[in-house]
Automatic annotation (TrEMBL):
The chain holds residues 336 to 619 of 619 of the full protein. Residues 24-282 form the EAL domain. This is Bifunctional diguanylate cyclase/phosphodiesterase. It comes from the Bacteria.
Length: 284
């Protein structure tokens, strides 16, 4: 690139950048009122027991159907909510809805716990246990049917304050899963200190797991196998995320991973379609 074209690029780029910036501000405004306008709802992605291939859990994933912006990915709006003080409200909405829905399928005879993702900011006020207990009481859901997904990086911050909230929730029967395991900067110390029940092995390791393939896959295979052994030794369960094909599924079964999630098994679906999956399983 010549100096001249770089300079031109900079001149041309500015208005575009301002557009982007304006769009972002508009999106924040819109997100602020999304809950009240019923634009936010949940998708459910089942989790399968790898021995029986029965559904043994389900993850609630936030969805935003915006009037102005159409479908917005959580990879976009969750960080926006986090950066703009909206994640507490959004997080409470997700918790309330997930607990209410879970209570409903339990009443229909489906004994399936629900998992909800947490953001770091939701642990910063120290109010999370109180909020969760309030929501459980209001929905009538027993705490053992709620699992909270946190990430490794959340365990590295302000340890004392976070540990005590996790312990309070744990004591009441709420379980925890470490999401995207293997991708955060972490010091594995926390695994022995923290009573997480589940490690969710990140999709980046699970993809291309084929033992017989190239060097890259072989390394992923070894990593996942090692994580499963480590987890078993520590008394933790393992869930593989992002299973996209049958080979991967079979490999995971062969190395005794406990559960799996992924497009090959089921994409995130509406609550209605989740019921259909539960019913289909019944009639098999
Ligand atoms: P996550 O919790 O790790 O969720 C897994 C993501 O991977 C989901 O994306 C899911 O749709 C996608 N996925 C599942 N199986 C497959 C597969 O086989 N292949 C591929 N390529 N992708 C798969 P989604 O729904 O877009 O969510 C992205 C992230 O946004 C979540 O990652 C989570 O960190 C965050 N998120 C979603 N809902 C919430 C929420 O209610 N609260 C918070 N704090 N974060 C949320
Ligand atoms: Mg998750
Ligand atoms: Mg994940
Ligand atoms: Mg993630």
């Amino acid at each position: 690139r010549s100096k001249l074209s770089r300079k031109n690029a900079a001149l041309l780029y500015q208005p575009q950048w301002q557009d982007e910036h304006r769009k972002k501000l508009e999106m924040i405004q819109s997100l602020r009122s999304a809950i009240d306008r019923n634009e936010l709802f949940l998708a459910y992605q089942p989790k399968y027991d790898l021995a029986s291939l029965a559904i043994n859990g389900v993850e609630a994933l936030a969805r935003w159907q915006s009037k102005e912006f159409g479908w917005v990915s959580p990879a976009v709006f969750i960080p926006l909510a986090e950066e703009n003080g909206l994640i507490d409200d959004l997080g409470l909405f997700v918790l309330k809805q997930a607990c209410k829905d879970c209570k409903h399928w339990l009443e229909k005879g489906y004994d399936i716990p629900v998992s909800v993702n947490l953001s770091a900011a939701q642990l910063s006020s120290g109010m999370l246990p109180e909020h969760v207990f309030g929501i459980l009481a209001a929905s009538g859901l027993s705490p053992q049917y709620l699992e909270l997904e946190i990430t490794e990086s959340m365990l590295m911050q302000d340890q004392q304050a976070i540990d005590s909230q996790i312990e309070t929730l744990n004591e009441k029967g709420i379980s925890f899963a470490i999401d995207d395991f293997g991708t955060g900067y972490s010091n594995l110390h926390y695994l022995s200190r923290f009573k997480a029940a589940t490690l969710k092995i990140d999709q980046s390791f699970v993809r291309q797991l084929d033992e017989s393939a190239d060097n890259y896959s072989l390394k992923n295979y070894s990593l996942v196998k090692g994580i499963v052994v480590l987890a078993k030794t520590l008394g933790l369960t393992t869930v593989a995320e992002g299973v996209e094909d049958k080979n991967t599924l079979n490999t995971l079964r062969a190395i005794n991973c406990d559960s799996a999630q992924g497009y090959f098994l089921s994409k995130p679906v509406t609550l209605e379609d989740f019921y259909v999956a539960l019913q289909n399983q019944d009639s098999e």
